[in-house]
Design a protein that fits this description.
Elements lengths: L1 H17 L3 H12 L4 H7 L6 H41 L6 H6 L9 H15 L3 E2 L5 E2 L1 H4 L19 E3 L5 E5 L5 H8 L5 E10 L11 E11 L4 H16 L5 E5 L5 E10 L16 E10 L1 H6 L8 E8 H9 L12 H4 L6
Parallel strand pairs: 1-5
Antiparallel strand pairs: 2-4, 3-4, 5-6, 6-10, 7-8, 8-9, 9-10
Helix pairs in contact: 1-4, 2-4, 6-11
The structure holds adenosine-5'-[phenylalaninyl-phosphate].
């Protein structure tokens, strides 16, 4: 009987080695170790042997059964690991390869049109030697107003409807910046002339929205300070940037504009690209879009920024980035830009 058991074990071991599927292994287990399996068949004749033999055969049979069970468990886990590895190898994707990602039906994202234009404008200014600065959304009165020649109680504070944070006592304290001109102040105090920089970012105004007005929108501030800077420098840089963005010479209109932080101040308008100057809801039927207020930096602003206004002068501008996006893509309502409607946003993929 011992011999028979050993033969069974050997044939089991050989058969197990050949099995590659979980189901086949389980079938083999039941063929040998099941209630009516081969091992039980052999052990049936245990009743006919002497007590002495039983004492040897019994433990040996248990030992072999235990070993066979262990071998089955080991084989099953090996098959499982092999299956997982095969699946992983099959499902492996190169996420840096757009085709393989799209083949799986996964849609890849794209940039928001405001980001696309902002980066383009940044690149143009970088190529002309401008630095890029950043500043906080939550500002104090000094940076948003006072340092920009707008003292408390000055009527110009009403030009930009402000979101204020109130102190527990009810007085106004901090505010959400109403323009990126706040970064002019930070730029001046952190560098020595000559310098030139731009500062793109979100700004906030408590305004009624319409086709060309949002409460949260983007501006791109620019400033150049040095000796003998003139309006000619200002118009040169503005025209160059607009030509790069629209890939053509743009019709522009410069009219006097009042901003307490520049003197003289201008409003630079471009021909409305939505209606090509014919008049529409975006340009309020005028054919022109106010895009870029600018001017020569007021001496008081230079002094507040720690710059000697006798020796240095400069220009500054505040580009309305969302309006630029609208003009570039012919978008007839600014509210589409922040509507988070994927049908709209996905039209601007750059690839
Ligand atoms: C300013 O914010 C000045 N700080 C700009 C400036 C900088 C002037 C430096 C001189 C020197 P204004 O409020 O006009 O100016 O806004 C600038 C531009 O932001 C506008 O020309 C327009 O393109 C855009 N803009 C203004 N209000 C909104 C709004 N509610 N929604 C969308 N764009 C707006």
């Amino acid at each position: 009987m011992l011999e028979k058991l050993d033969d069974l074990f050997t044939s089991f071991e050989k058969a197990l080695e050949e099995k590659l599927l979980q189901a086949d292994v389980l079938n083999l287990k039941s063929e040998y170790l099941g209630k009516k399996g081969k091992v039980s068949e052999v052990l049936k004749s245990l009743k006919d042997v002497s007590l002495e033999e039983k004492k040897v055969i019994g433990p040996r049979a248990n030992e072999l059964k235990e070993k066979m069970n262990q071998m089955v468990a080991k084989k099953l886990s090996a098959i499982e690991i092999a299956e997982i590895n095969e699946k992983l190898a099959k499902e492996k994707i190169d996420i840096t390869n757009r085709e393989s990602v799209q083949a799986l039906g996964i849609k890849s994202g794209g940039y928001h049109p405001a980001t696309i234009i902002q980066r383009e404008v940044e690149d143009i200014f970088l190529s002309m030697g401008f630095d890029i600065l950043d500043g906080p959304h939550i500002e104090d009165e000094f940076h948003n107003f006072e340092a920009l020649n707008i003292p408390a109680d000055h009527p110009a504070r009403d030009m930009q409807d402000t979101f204020w944070f109130q102190k527990p006592t009810g007085e106004n304290s901090y505010l959400l910046r109403t323009h990126t001109s706040t970064i002019q102040v930070r730029g001046m105090t952190s560098r020595k002339p000559p310098f030139k920089f731009i500062a793109p970012g979100k700004v906030f105004r408590c305004e009624r929205t319409d086709a060309s007005h949002e409460m949260v929108f983007h501006q791109l501030e620019g400033m150049m300070v040095g000796e003998d800077i003139s309006v000619a420098h200002l118009t040169y840089f503005m025209k160059t940037v607009l030509k790069e963005i629209f890939k053509k010479d743009m019709e522009i209109r410069l009219r006097p504009g009042f901003f307490p932080f520049v003197e003289p101040g201008f409003e630079l308008d471009i021909e409305c690209q939505v209606c090509k100057g014919k008049g529409c809801s975006v340009c309020k039927k005028t054919g022109w879009v106010e895009l870029l207020p600018c001017g020569m930096v007021h001496p008081n602003v230079l002094e507040a920024g720690g710059i000697d206004s006798e020796k240095y002068n400069g220009f500054a501008f505040g580009l309305g980035l969302d309006r630029l996006v609208m003009m570039r893509y012919g978008i007839d309502d600014i509210r589409h830009l922040h509507g988070a409607d994927l049908r709209f946003i996905s039209q601007f993929r750059t690839y």
